[in-house]
Amino acid sequence: MSELLLVGRVARAHGNKGQVIVNPETDFPGDRFAEGNVLVVDHGGQQVERRIVSVRFQQGRPIVALDGVATMNDAEALAGAELKVPAETLAPLPGGTFYRHDLVGCEVRTKDGQVVGMVTRIEGPVERSLLVVAGKLGEVMIPMVQGIVTSVDIGTRRVVVDPPDGLIDVNSAARTSDSE
């Protein structure tokens, strides 16, 4: 099987007809959790493909009925399961936008070449995304906005930033005050 990418996690069962509430891990929940799509349910070391039979959204979270999950007990057994899709099923993105999995693992440098660290994850929705970078002095959160992130090269796994004064040093200041 090709590389699988996380798009959500089963939070818990919903109702008594086998539906589950999903915590989405994607900027495109409407696309990823559409009726008819096939997800790989990864739970307890086993991976099973399941087709989405129906879906509705409540407070931004999908409530999904999966083929083969018919009872509340079946749904409860899926709590904590990761929902994944094959990487090749993802559509190309418009210029200047990136899938989260493409950014994780990229080296972050300032425009003058100073190494900030490595991207460990992305937080927030697409319009307010933050790069979470493991730096020398701790985590650095860098807003993924034009003017701060000046270039992204997925091929070389490099992100160049032009941070405002103090953004990179904020962790050293926080650590110093914590240790006093």
| SS-derived structural category | mainly beta
Question: How many distinct folded domains?
Answer: 2
Count of alpha/pi helices: 4
- Level-1 CATH class name of the largest domain: Mainly Beta
Protein model, in words:
By secondary structure, this protein is mainly beta. The protein is 13% helix and 45% strand. The protein has four helices and twelve strands; from the N terminus they run ββαβββαβαββββββα. The strands form two sheets. A six-stranded antiparallel barrel has the order 1-2-5-4-3-6.
Explain the layout of strands and helices.
Elements: E1 4-14, E2 19-24, H1 29-32, E3 38-43, E4 46-58, E5 61-66, H2 72-76, E6 82-86, H3 100-103, E7 107-110, E8 115-123, E9 130-135, E10 138-143, E11 149-153, E12 158-161, H4 170-179
Parallel strand pairs: 7-12
Antiparallel strand pairs: 1-2, 1-6, 2-5, 3-4, 3-6, 4-5, 7-8, 8-9, 9-10, 11-12
Defining key terms:
2 domains, Elongation Factor Tu (Ef-tu), domain 3, six-stranded mixed beta sheet, six-stranded antiparallel beta barrel
Give a brief outline of the structure.
By secondary structure, this protein is mostly beta strands. Helices cover 13% and strands 45% of the residues. It is elongated, with a radius of gyration of 19 Å.
